[in-house]
């Protein structure tokens, strides 16, 4: 007698129903649990339920963190979490990055371990809902934002924090996990992190899921509406949501898929970027004081330290370093319709911390203050078009902040701006290409194609237009 | 009056006809130019047309190459081509790589520039033909093999060799190039190269193409037949051919595409591999003599030097270092049909020189001699199954050599071997997964998924069975 098969029979390589189910959730302006109109009150209530306070402190008051005597690198005595080190970046074909240099030194965060950013999905009344968390991060301007179900460094879930278990982690790691909808390693800020990537996961639960304090079930339509509010949907949520296989079925584009791949390959091969990790103490033009490490011209960002008191976090109090950008950023896609098909203009970006030479990013991604001292030709292309866009050309605008566990008040204006042939020609300058959101959705199934700022905007591009807008 | 559009109107993202045209070429057992039966004589004639000789020389006789006094690194005085340096690799979850160590030192080739490996395609009598070149590489056991149309390092085509122009390069670089069919950066041997990748291109010409000496037009069916001969189709040809969008339409598999992506992501996150470049002189257990750098146990590979005299190469004579493996390798996929759909067993492989922690490779990829001293449990999984496979289970077998411009007599037996539940269970051990050739073809549209040995076998998997076999 033959033994029964060890696994189910063959499966379809692609789940044909998934995209229509995602479309259903995107079209659902309300869900079964929390009404969008009640969200702000719920978030405020969650904030009141926990008493937390973040204060700047001198480096000397960091607990467990210190500067290495020999290298000047800033690290934790456990050897875990992350370190602040130095990086020397050399490239031939500048200007790229957040400064017009072909060769520069900077502090950088080194955090080699791969964390999990995971959103749990469950169907209620036939509509997929996403389990989101009200989570405090010390660098958020408003402390509490909407995070994925799970936002865990390896230190988190292997207990280096000596804190509470990571809630819902069993749906993402280990034998009991749910049905995977997306699972891909994506890069984070290449200007601030050295080769950091996190596992972006979306997992569907089949059985009952208990709803814990600080968590809520939302449809994609509800989350899309919240993406229009400032500082509500955190960076980790935005990057995970960008990895959803969205049901954009546009089968035509200015560039065929292979032409787009070829353009990306050409940009990767064209740039010759060399990076070298160096001791933080040896980084020229950056000065360490009692409370900050900053650039001598006051540009780019500062390394600072904070103390945190909180009740609902993994541990009840801690201190840590953060990177604090010196000004508000501008992160924008220029957008045009060609033959009725929406396109956005991507830029091939060199950032010192990327694993490969380039990733695609938004048309504009910079902190304008860093360029104020430069002559107009040295400023980023298309920045003026974005900054001077009249209101009727702005399809989307919101202020979002970057990951509050590493970055303090790192706010950017995220925009999608309509352009025309005079602003943004159909044949763009070298380093830029017109692509459709559907093409970006195909690319983000794989890592290292679209940077975290681009993914933030893709999450919005893929959302349905909210009602009343 | 409106100006005419700058580009053609929108295109289909995917060329629906391409796969059927590739199938047509794969089915064509003869082409319009050189008959398969005449190929061996043509290649031999090309060999006689050029007088070349390769001899081993002591390092002291290298011209322009020397060991750096401080680091012991071996490099060229121009600073170009490549260097031989040291690498320290540390990993938590061994054994992987070509030695059962969680921590090892080794010499490694550093060649940061990205070359072009390109095959030109043109339709004759409605059937796509591929332009292949009889090319001498000093490390090939038989010197002359069939290479892509273009096989050019950046030094080649920017004239660091001070030699002749690279023939047909204008179809792959610059404004006059043809229609791109594939264009992707793919890794090369992670055990021997530090983060090396080359641009794998397939480009279709629309106009007339002159046929130069040493070149021939072959159909895919012809090339498939040649893949059954030992040491004929060189590594560069095999990797480029693996990137063809082959018309395997199997829509079902044991793992859905997202389950496969998730497994790969999990393997990438699970392995914690750190690499550090170190001076060659500081690499322990490797000894430099007058003519070789070798491991004290005689295992793995040797660094050697050769002089080359040749007439049809970019320059008429040169000397260079090569890596010479100490034994013949075994590179094999175990294969099973599930529900009538062919699958192969891929391994998640850690190699010190990979850009990311792992890439997929064949089921078995090793040099058996390197493991002869170890107890059976420490030898590579599935090696015995491959070595002891009876003839009627061997679906494919040929000896191929690795890139003859860097590796001397680096031969492996490439095999595809039928397995059953007792040899290779449907639920494989950790680090292995069953995938279909169609799934591998989807993955190699992107870089850093399938290693060069896996791609060599994929080129064969995608070929039609030759007649009479």
Characterise this structure.
The structure is a homodimer of 469-residue chains. Mean pLDDT of chain A is 91; it is low at 94-99. Among the domains of chain A are: 18-51 and 113-241, Nucleoside Triphosphate Pyrophosphohydrolase (Alpha-Beta Complex), CATH 3.90.79; 261-274 and 327-461, Alpha-Beta Complex (Nucleoside Triphosphate Pyrophosphohydrolase), CATH 3.90.79.40. In chain A, α1 (18-27) crosses α4 and α5 crosses α9 (452-461). With 469 residues, chain A is an alpha+beta fold. Chain A is 16% helix and 34% strand. Chain A has 9 helices and 27 strands. Chain A has helices spanning 18-27, 39-49, 154-157, 220-226, 235-242, 257-270, 383-387, 437-443, 452-461, and strands at 11-12, 53-57, 65-67, 74-76, 83-91, 103-110, 115-124, 127-136, 144-147, 150-152, 179-187, 193-194, 197-204, 215-218, 252-253, 273-278, 286-288, 293-295, 301-309, 317-325, 329-338, 341-350, 358-361, 364-366, 394-401, 411-418, 432-435. Chains A and B meet through β1, β11, β15 and α6 of A and β1, β11, β15 and α6 of B. Chains A, B: GO terms for molecular function: lyase activity.
């Amino acid at each position: 007698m033959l033994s029964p098969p060890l696994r189910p029979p063959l499966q379809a390589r692609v789940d044909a129903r998934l995209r229509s189910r995602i479309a259903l959730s995107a079209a659902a302006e309300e869900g079964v649990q929390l009404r969008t109109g009640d969200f702000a009150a719920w978030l405020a209530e969650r904030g009141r339920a926990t008493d937390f306070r973040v204060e700047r402190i001198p480096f000397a008051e960091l607990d467990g963190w210190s500067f290495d005597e020999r290298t000047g690198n800033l690290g934790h005595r456990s050897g875990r979490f992350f370190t602040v080190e130095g990086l020397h970046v050399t490239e031939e074909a500048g200007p790229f990055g957040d400064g017009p240099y072909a060769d520069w030194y900077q502090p950088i965060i080194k955090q080699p371990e791969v964390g999990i950013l995971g959103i749990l999905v469950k169907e209620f009344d036939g509509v997929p809902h996403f389990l989101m968390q009200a989570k405090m991060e010390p660098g958020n301007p408003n402390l509490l934002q909407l995070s994925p179900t799970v936002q865990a460094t390896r230190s988190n879930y292997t207990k280096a924090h000596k804190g509470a278990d990571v809630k819902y982690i069993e749906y993402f790691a280990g034998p009991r996990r749910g049905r995977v909808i997306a699972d891909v390693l994506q890069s984070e800020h290449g200007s601030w992190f050295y080769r950091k990537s996190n596992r972006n996961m979306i997992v569907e639960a089949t059985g009952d899921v208990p709803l814990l304090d600080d968590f809520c079930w939302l449809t994609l339509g509800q989350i899309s509406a919240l993406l229009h509010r400032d500082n509500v949907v955190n960076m980790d949520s935005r990057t995970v949501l960008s990895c959803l296989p969205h049901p954009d079925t546009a089968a035509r584009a200015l560039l065929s898929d292979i032409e787009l791949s070829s353009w990306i390959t050409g940009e990767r091969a064209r740039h010759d970027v060399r990076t070298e990790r160096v001791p933080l103490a040896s980084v020229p033009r950056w000065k360490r004081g009692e409370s900050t490490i900053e650039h001598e011209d006051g540009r780019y960002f500062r390394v600072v330290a904070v103390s945190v008191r909180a009740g609902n976090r993994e541990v009840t109090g801690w201190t840590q370093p953060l990177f604090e950008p010196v000004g508000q950023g501008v992160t924008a896609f220029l957008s045009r319709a060609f033959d009725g098909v929406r396109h956005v203009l991507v830029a091939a970006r060199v950032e010192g911390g990327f694993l490969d030479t380039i990733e695609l990013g938004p048309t504009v991604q910079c902190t304008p203050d860093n360029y104020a001292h430069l002559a107009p030709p040295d400023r980023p292309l298309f920045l003026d078009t974005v900054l001077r866009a009249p209101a009727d050309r702005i399809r989307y605008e919101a202020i979002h902040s970057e990951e509050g566990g590493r970055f303090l008040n790192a706010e950017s204006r995220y925009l999608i701006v309509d352009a025309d042939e005079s602003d943004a020609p159909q044949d763009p300058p070298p380093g830029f290409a017109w692509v459709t959101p559907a093409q970006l959705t195909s690319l983000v199934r794989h890592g290292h194609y679209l940077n975290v700022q681009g993914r933030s905007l893709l999450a919005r591009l893929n959302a349905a237009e909210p009602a009343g807008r």
